[in-house]
Amino acid sequence: MKKINEIFYSLQGEGYHTGIPAIFVRFSGCNMKCSFCDTLHEDGIMMSDEEIISEVVKYPASMVVLTGGEPGLWIDESLVDALHNEGKYVCVETNGTCVLPGNVDWVTCSPKEGGEVRLNHIDEVKVVYVGQDVSVYLDLPARYYFIQFQYRGSNCLYSEVSQVAIEFANS
To answer: What tens digit of pLDDT does each residue of 87-98 get?
Structure first.
C-alpha cells in the first residue's frame, strides 16, 4: 500500500518534458521539510498498486510522473513494472535522497539543501532557486540542468533568478 495525495492528468510544466501530456501520481510524505512544498502531506489515501494502475489507465497520456512529496519513499520495481505493462513511460521527480528502482525511465533530481543525493542515475537536475549557491548542483552527473524560481507572490526574485540562471548555464 502506498499513500497517494492525488492522481491527475495535465501537461508537464517543468524541465525537459515541459508541454508533454502526463499523468501525475503525487505521493504523500517526505523526508525533507521544504518551505516551498506544494503537497499537503497529511492528505492522501492508501492505495494498492492495482488501484493506482486502475486510476492511471483512465487517462490518455503515455507518460506517468511519480512525484510528491518524496516518491522514493514509496515506489518499487513492481509498481514501475505494472506501469510499463500498461505501456507507460515512467518518470520520477525526487529530492534524490532515496535509492530508486532501476527500471525507472527518467529521473528528475530536485536536490534540497541538507539532503544527500543517493541516486545511481540522473537524467535532469531541477533546482528550485531560493537564494542558495546553485554551483554545487553542477557536480551531479546529469544530462540536463534546469533552474527555476520559487514563486512567492508579488515578492518573486525574477531578476535575481535570471542572473543566476545565466551564470548556471555558462558554468
So the answer is: 999 999 999 999
